Amino acid sequence: xxxxxxxxxxxxxxxxxxxxxxxxxxxxxxxxxxxxxxxxxxxxxxxxxxxxxxxxxxxxxxxxxxxxxxxxxxxxxxxxxxxxxxxxxxxx
Length: 92
Known about the structure:
mainly alpha; Multidrug-efflux Transporter Regulator, Chain: A, Domain 2; two-stranded antiparallel sheet; 4 helices; 2 strands; 7% strand
């Protein structure tokens, strides 16, 4: 499925991939995996050798609820995934 098209479908597929969830929630793919790791997102079948899948109804509910992500965590995620800085503030 085209990634931008998923934003406009009337009915989501039953299972969503990490990439599709990242588009719907507006996060980077690595941030979605991090949210699963810290327990803020629940994936279906969380094993190491299988791709993470998500329930579409669960993700759609989170997408419609602006209060599901604790305040400050979104800014913490953006700091976590930026490039490393040197002591004087310049990028390496």
